[in-house]
């Protein structure tokens, strides 16, 4: 929407509501406040066509273009192959457990009866968080290997990713880009603090030229006589973009000494994370929490670091603190299949069954083909708990329709057939579940239980010692099911996957007693 010109030659903008006329610059400010950045930039461009020296319109357009492409860079970022394989920031090749992301704590792992774990010992949480799903690979083969194609590790570096983000969203005009960064006199702009800050963010996020941004920040810091904490933080930000982490550390520490800020603490901790120093990152988070108690951003970041080093008990504690202060996902307008799926499971555990089914109904409406199997599995779990095995069987069949490799759904279908004494069908379901999953121990136990009841003690002992990995758990926080028929015919294989599985231990004990007799 461009401003009209009335008979007097003044710009006039038609604005629906009580006011018939509105100043175009004020209207552009309102568009910016409402996060309509494209419309704001277009309106400012029209004003600059009439007066190229309008500093207010130039400033507002610069801010609008920056905010349109700006991302939250205080979060944990994704590491590219170049950074992983050519990492020269490691302090030790064999660090102590818990002091490096490449060697998490070994005695704080998740209970395998609750949730499956990956080969690195991390629990399979159902979502992929950039840079944290697995530890740093030790060989090129491990670095290149990935179970996914859409979420595979990029070959480029993180700085290359920033360039792609900037160029993909670069706003261009007919005559070229908005600001020709190469021709700017950065020393001149450094003497104008307000314009300099807007220009710095534009150069860094839109222009994707961290070297120029660093130059401007250095001039501005010198002009402010090294007393401005913001410019010191931006110096650290620029150094971080360039991979100069020790220089970034010094600038961010100096900025925090002048003024404690959440942004500075998050950036400094991010630098320590890139240096593979999680304990220093946690120290920064805890120091910041003393200045900003119960800050949800800091609590979430600390919990992720604890999870990354394998200290799951501390991670759960931090997540609990976070949930006490941040429960507004639905109020913020977030609506996804995963959210309503987990909300339905929570309502089910609280015995609010009417709300649980409403949540699952919403989850099925929002789910795509990749998550429908998990939602149907969880709904089948609820039906099994309520005793409706017919509806549970239908839900589980729908689950394997959308994902034939859903081992937990196959196992629970085998449990239902086992309950109906259809042992041949149950065996087939258990065999399929073991074929599609190497971490679920219940199919081994159930297969062993069938062998034991039919007198095949050798097969029963073999299966009882094999599965000792994990109880049923699904990618969308789907809960394990099998309190009535815990998997147990291959007792030895079950115990290999999950050594603390009591039914498998009892089954193996009974088998050995019968063999001795």
From TrEMBL:
Concerning SMART domains, the annotation shows: TPR (SM00028)
Q: Which InterPro entries match?
A: BBS8, TPR-like_helical_dom_sf, TPR_rpt
| Presence of the UniProt keyword Chaperone in the record | no
Q: Which GO terms describe its cellular component?
A: BBSome; ciliary basal body; non-motile cilium
User: Ranges of Polar residues compositional bias?
Assistant: 99-110, 131-141
Bias type Low complexity, positions: 145-155
Q: Where are the TPR repeats?
A: 337-370, 373-406, 407-440
Report any Pfam family annotated for this entry: TPR_12
The segments labelled Disordered in the record are 93-155
Q: CDD domains annotated for this entry?
A: TTC8_N
Q: Which GO terms describe its biological process?
A: non-motile cilium assembly
Q: Which UniProt keywords apply?
A: TPR repeat
Return the protein name: Tetratricopeptide repeat protein 8
